[in-house]
Design goal:
The complex is a heterodimer of chains A (about 500) and B (about 475).
Chain A (H helix, E strand, L loop, with lengths): L12 H5 L5 E3 L1 H12 L26 H10 L4 E5 L9 H15 L7 E4 L4 H6 L2 H15 L3 E5 L2 H6 L3 H12 L3 E4 L11 H13 L12 E5 L8 H4 L5 E5 L5 H6 L5 E4 L5 H11 L12 H14 L3 H26 L3 E6 L1 H13 L3 E7 L15 H9 L4 E4 L4 H11 L3 E4 L2 H10 L4 E3 L8 H15 L3 H9 L7 H5 L13
Parallel strand pairs in A: 2-3, 2-4, 4-5, 6-7, 6-8, 9-10, 9-12, 10-11, 12-13
Antiparallel strand pairs in A: 1-11
Chain B lengths: L21 E2 L10 H5 L4 E6 L4 H11 L17 H6 L2 H14 L4 E6 L1 H6 L3 H10 L4 E5 L7 H21 L9 E5 L9 H14 L3 E3 L9 H5 L6 E4 L6 H11 L3 E3 L7 H15 L3 H29 L8 E6 L1 H14 L3 E7 L5 H10 L11 E3 L3 H10 L7 E5 L4 H6 L4 E3 L16 H23 L1 H4 L2
Parallel strand pairs in B: 2-3, 3-4, 5-6, 5-7, 7-8, 9-10, 9-12, 10-11, 12-13
Classes of the chains: A alpha/beta (about 500), B alpha/beta (about 475).
């Protein structure tokens, strides 16, 4: 089940990993059935059965893979991204730019608008095809910005009308002499937006990571993250490792260094396609230890990095010193958060990590809303079974809902959970919902916030900052309502409408 | 390909070739008109499109632009492989039926995106089957490749008028004296639309009119829409958006319309506007004059005091002398008239960004003539940010202090020419907007506050030594 880099299209997550987007039950059952279905890991014990996905007749607007692929291509420096699409797909330019400028400020780069251009297809192009417009736009992009790479992202429309994007890209690449990398990210092709990560990582692996066998470095650690400040260097520099931080904004030089590193870690297994690919193509080992959320997991994660990079003699001292450093503040946070109940809404492995953090902080978590579920990873290594690991080390979660950010289902899940606060990613729907229901909410924009020892403090402090806002949210909740029918407003089962057998 | 609609004859000839490649998008696609539906209290869009389409349009128009918020929990078929291959009408039928089970609304507006247009889904037929059962539901074909959210807005409005309002109005609705329908700013696209529509309503009611403002918090919602046929007048308060609607209403109900391309900003323009509307509906002139007098008393007290600043009580600041605008035509025109006509700035580069229909462009150009007596503005129609910025950067200036009114995209070029930037157009990512308005009497004062606060801050940042004097 190797990653196939021969074709320009990445296989979708559904095809590779058996990814599902709709499920309801306990975390323990989900981990067990995933393992039963897709390979025995930790939880291949008694009573497993084939993972059974639900389906709901009602659904609300979600998100698409194109958005993820395009956003993460756009924040690569010296690149121009061409959205080969009608203008609506390019509506994301404004928020991608906001993200890019904010990211630049946090990483100490010069904040400037990223370069993305839409071919702006119209009805005529739907009839006669849009490849001529695409060729003209690629030339225009090159003239305007003299980029070092051009990405061409497809859209639902160009996928359906069958524009030869690969052929056009190859032709223009010969003409202008820089890589023109197609990103096949038609929104309808995958049921989950996180396939967009695979698409951009596939494009990077195929075209922007040269084989450099003579440049191997034993002190370079690739860190693949979702985006945000570099919280990794302080953790691994004491081991004598430098961080090559990629995805979520990077230079082409960093990408070109990927094949030379001693190892790769991924800060969320949802992004592990690139790490697995680097191991497969260039023999850069992928660290598979459970992600560094919580004290014990962070200890073990550092130990695994030290083992793979042959720095075992240094690691125990680093662990001891970090634990001692954060201990007083961790005690204060645990005391302040004692008795609180949290609700986690995020995507798959990232959600599992946040639960581990909250439980380490002494917060009770019995409700999780995960935007999708990957029953397996590209490495097929049971070590990366983050849900199984979470259940084994911190206990079950009674209400584990998998839903692609569906507002109506989240409403029911929150009615059932009645938490003291919500911690979430993809704040567009979830954060607003929680706030409007009178619940304080901590939206995580930069997903590195909860990582490692310092992450516990970052998250704990952030929760304490939002709790007093209940006064505001309750006021708004008391004076507004959602346009659901009364029966749904009272419903506490997110899948009450679902057909088929509930888990 | 099968592009058809049985419910409405989409007559608009606006589906011309698109405008060429666009960097720094300044509008959404036709599906983005779901924002207009959300702007109507009691209405819910049902979208038949890909999984990310509706979210992306609304997040761009509302979430990141002015942080306007708005009720977004929009039903969507989230079309996948199966529907692309086998067609999506079955899935749409299932979605509509379950929406009726879960959601509560007075009106449902089914909007289709690119995919159903390309695979040939007969959406109209699905919607028709619900209409036959008496469900308040209409169909607007807002295929993304058909045009902008401005065009989509006209399509949505037309669908609601033809398929909802007309059925409830009967053949000969009674005309209510003094009732006007207002067709003005595009909701959400213009970040200040909520406050502006509230101010427009306030000043029209001030002269004794009843107002169907139709969108936003100042509107009564669908009861206003049902009263549209009873109005005495359609007021089109925009350079071109709404004209097609007004013409349609003239045909169907014989309602006259009054077209004022420029939304009034400031006392001079607002008084002239109110007198013209008053005349058109035969309002009591005494009442009109009384209201204008009272408003002007307040307005000019504030202007009198602002004159201290504007006369140079703090002369270290570089008060702008040349106005450059990059915006949709409605605000470009209104703001140009106010700053050139009332504040005494010279017109610089004016870029109209929304790719208006060719048929309306001459009207728009004409509206920019005589911004002040003998002073013309020359709008350029350009949707691409890169070219818009070249126009501004390469514009010859001798001795002028430029100011830029535009979107967040203009930050770079404003910096390049040393101009303060006041964000007034989509996307406005560096302003949090609630009820602020920039039009009418009260809005004009807030516009001055914002513009000159920006001038002062920019002078302070760039000339620390001057500010320290």
């Amino acid at each position: 089940m190797a990653i196939n880099l021969r074709t320009p299209q990445a296989e979708t997550r559904e095809q590779r990993l058996g990814t599902i987007t709709q499920w309801e039950g306990s975390a323990q059952d989900l981990a067990r059935d995933s393992a039963f279905t897709y390979g025995c890991g930790r939880d291949c014990g008694e009573g497993g059965r084939r993972l059974c996905e639900l389906s709901s007749p009602y659904s609300q607007a979600s998100m698409c893979a194109e958005q993820i692929a395009v956003t993460n291509a756009t924040v690569i420096k010296d690149a121009v991204v061409i959205q080969h699409s009608p203008i609506g797909c390019a509506s994301s330019q404004s928020f991608t730019s906001r993200y890019s400028r904010d990211l630049a400020a946090r990483r100490g780069w010069k904040p400037e608008d990223p370069k993305s251009i839409c071919t702006n297809l119209g009805e005529r192009d739907m009839v006669f095809g849009g490849v001529e417009r695409l060729a003209a736009t690629i030339r225009e992009a090159y003239e305007r910005h003299r980029p070092r790479v051009i990405f061409v992202a497809t859209s639902c429309a160009t996928g359906i009308i069958g524009d030869d994007v690969d052929g056009t890209a190859r032709q223009l690449e010969d003409e202008i002499g820089i890589p023109v990398v197609p990103l096949h990210c038609e929104g309808f092709k995958s049921r989950h937006w996180s396939s967009g990560w695979d698409v951009i990582e596939h494009g990077i692996l195929r075209r922007l990571v040269p084989h450099r066998p003579n440049d191997k470095r034993d002190d370079l650690l690739n860190v693949i993250h979702l985006g945000g400040p570099d919280v990794f260097s302080p953790l691994v520099n004491p081991l004598g490792l430098s961080v090559n931080l990629v995805m979520g904004g990077n230079s082409l030089e960093r990408l070109a260094d990927l094949s030379t590193a001693a190892a790769t870690v991924t800060m969320c297994f949802v992004l592990s396609y690139l790490a697995t690919g680097l191991e497969q193509e260039y023999g850069v080992p992928e660290i598979r230890a459970p992600l560094p959320y919580g004290l014990a997991a962070t200890d073990n994660w550092l130990r695994d990095i030290a083992r793979v990079t042959k720095r075992e003699s240094l690691v125990e001292a680093v662990i001891a010193s970090e634990r001692a450093r954060i201990a007083p503040e961790l005690d204060r946070l645990r005391a302040a958060l004692k008795g609180k109940k949290g609700f986690v809404a995020a995507g798959a492995a990232f959600a599992h990590g946040l639960v581990a953090d909250l439980r380490e902080l002494g917060v009770a978590v019995d409700d999780v809303f995960s935007f999708h579920h990957d029953p397996s990873t590209d490495s097929r290594d049971a070590e990366q079974d983050s849900l199984g690991h979470l259940v084994q080390t911190t206990g079950d979660i009674s209400h584990f809902t998998v839903s692609p950010d569906q507002h109506f289902q989240a409403h029911a899940a929150l009615k059932r959970a009645r938490p003291d606060f919500v911690i979430c990613r993809h704040s567009g729907s979830m954060a607003i919902l929680a706030g409007r229901m009178g619940i304080p909410v901590l939206p995580i924009f930069y997903s590195n916030d909860g990582l490692g020892y310092e992450g516990l403090l970052t998250i704990g402090r952030a929760i304490l900052r939002v709790l007093p806002r209940r006064r505001f949210y309750e006021d708004v909740a008391a004076h507004s309502r959602f346009p659901y029918q009364q029966w749904w407003l009272k419903e506490t089962n997110p899948y009450a409408l679902a057909a088929g057998d509930a888990a | 390909m099968n592009i058809q609609s049985r419910l409405a004859d989409e007559g608009a000839g606006s589906f011309a070739a698109s405008a060429g490649p666009i960097e720094q998008a300044r509008y959404a696609c036709a599906l983005g008109a779901l924002a207009s539906v959300i702007a109507i209290e009691g209405a819910i869009p049902i979208t038949h499109c890909g999984p990310g389409c509706a979210t992306k349009q609304f997040h761009a128009l509302s979430g990141i632009s002015g942080y306007q918020g708005g009720e977004f929990h929009v039903p969507s078929t989230n079309i996948g492989n199966k529907e692309v291959i086998f067609g999506g009408v079955g899935r749409l039928d299932e979605l509509i039926s379950s929406t009726l089970q879960v959601m509560e609304a007075e009106l449902y507006v089914v909007q289709s995106g690119c995919i159903p247009g390309l695979v040939g889904d007969d959406v109209a037929n699905v919607v028709q089957s619900y209409r036959r059962r008496g469900v308040p539901i209409v169909f607007a074909e807002t295929l993304g490749y058909r045009g902008t959210n401005f065009i989509g807005h006209e399509t949505v409005v037309r669908a609601i008028l033809d398929q909802y309002v007309a059925e409830r109005a009967g053949a000969n609705p009674e005309t209510r004296k003094g009732l006007v329908n207002v067709w003005s700013l595009l909701p959400y696209q213009n970040p200040f639309w909520r406050g502006d529509l509230a101010e427009i309503r306030r000043i029209l009611e001030g002269v004794g009119l009843e107002v169907n403002i139709l969108f936003g918090p100042a509107s009564e919602g669908l009861s206003e829409w049902r009263a549209i046929p009873s109005a005495e007048l359609n007021l089109v308060l925009s350079p071109w958006l709404g004209l097609a609607t007004a013409r349609r209403l003239e045909d169907v109900y014989g309602q006259p319309f009054l077209h004022r391309p420029a939304i009034p900003i400031g006392a001079r323009a607002t008084a002239a506007f109110l007198r013209q509307v008053g005349d058109a509906v035969g309002a009591d002139p005494a009442r009109v004059e009384h209201f204008i007098k009272r408003e002007e008393r307040d307005y000019y007290r504030y202007l009198r005091d602002f004159a201290h600043f504007y006369a140079g009580c703090a002369s270290q600041y570089r008060l702008p002398s040349e106005i450059n605008i990059v915006s949709e035509s409605a605000y470009a025109l209104a703001i140009a008239k106010f700053f050139v006509g009332d504040l005494g700035l010279n017109p610089g580069v004016i870029v109209v960004t929304e790719n208006p229909p060719e048929s309306e462009r001459e009207t728009i150009r004409a509206a920019f003539r005589d911004l002040a007596p003998g002073v013309d503005g020359e709008p350029t129609f350009e949707s691409d940010g890169h070219r818009a910025h070249e126009l501004i950067a390469k514009h010859a200036r001798v001795g002028e202090f430029p100011i830029v009114f535009g979107s967040t995209w203009e930050a770079a070029v404003a910096g390049e020419i040393g101009a303060p930037l006041v964000e007034i157009s989509y996307p406005t990512t560096d302003e949090v907007v609630l009820a602020r308005s920039y039009v009418g009497y009260r809005g004009a004062l807030q516009l001055l506050e914002r513009a000159y606060t920006t001038v002062v801050r920019q002078s302070t940042e760039e000339n620390p030594e001057a500010a320290a004097l």
